[in-house]
Known about the structure:
This protein has 302 residues and is α+β, with helices and mostly antiparallel strands. It has two domains: 1-117, Arc Repressor Mutant, subunit A (Orthogonal Bundle), CATH 1.10.10.10; 122-301, Beta-Lactamase (2-Layer Sandwich). 38% of the residues lie in helices and 16% in strands. The protein has eleven helices and eight strands. The protein has helices at residues 42-45, 59-72, 80-86, 91-103, 119-132, 138-149, 192-198, 203-213, 226-237, 277-282, 284-298, and strands at residues 78-79, 107-109, 114-117, 152-159, 162-169, 241-245, 252-260, 269-276. Strand 7 (252-260) and strand 8 form a beta hairpin. Helix 2 crosses helix 4 and helix 3 (80-86) packs across helix 4 (91-103).
Amino acid sequence: xxxxxxxxxxxxxxxPHDSGAPRERAARTRSARPAHKPGKxxxxxxxxxxxxxxxxxxxSVQRALRIMEYVxxxxxxxxxxxxxxxxxxxxxxxxxxxxxLVYEHYLRRDEHGKYTLxxxxxxxxxxxxxxxxGPRTCAEFMRRMSSETGYSTFLARFVEGRPAVTEVTEGSRxxxxxxxxxxxxxxxxxxxxxKALLATLQPHDRARFLKAAGMRPFTRRTLTEPxxxxxxxxxxGESGVYAELGQFREGVxxxxxxxxxxxxxxxRIVFAVALPxxxxxxxxxxLVGRLRDAAAELEPLL
Length: 302
């Protein structure tokens, strides 16, 4: 039996550290950026509904926002020492703020120690656009989510009794998986789309399907025993978000959630995203919440 692990079970890496960073020269100083941006002072307060600058502001919040803005301008990532220098912060302050922002998933830190924006940023953007946008279609939702997160998005349903991909929107950050195209109906035991759909079946119907379809290995991590597969569904069933970690393609992870239940299998629809395997482990708690929100938003559009 392949050992089962939920994404995020692996120990999380520590926060930024400066053990290898050069000592900051005492003579070097850098002026901090102004506490407010141009246009937010007296001139802005003359606009209808505008608010004047508050008399008391929390500096740590301002500094965190300054870091977010700077990191956002560098899509390839930026190191902690550079962030501290450009934002006019001492390193201790910068590292403490970076640890907090990474913990809250507003920033991500890669294996090279570079920081990029995290998933929570796109969540806040999604909430903003939802309040401003009019009615949308399912295809528009998928395009928007793929654009914001960079992850490929999928819909699947039972077609002639088999879990099949019915819609795909590719994302720039997701590894390309040539098999996951509209009409693909193989390997349900190895994909998050298939797992989520098979989880809606009664155990005897699921066992009958797996026996007829087979459980061939796609990678060394593929579950090929019915008992291991049932345990896998039970683990992920606790959150309602089903995942596969390199079980269909090496280096690729996928997570899916049931969007619409139905009396018959043909009425059931699943939404999923594909992303690099390292990212699904690092972002699992945020991803679970994001997929649940996506299911609630998608359901009325189907």
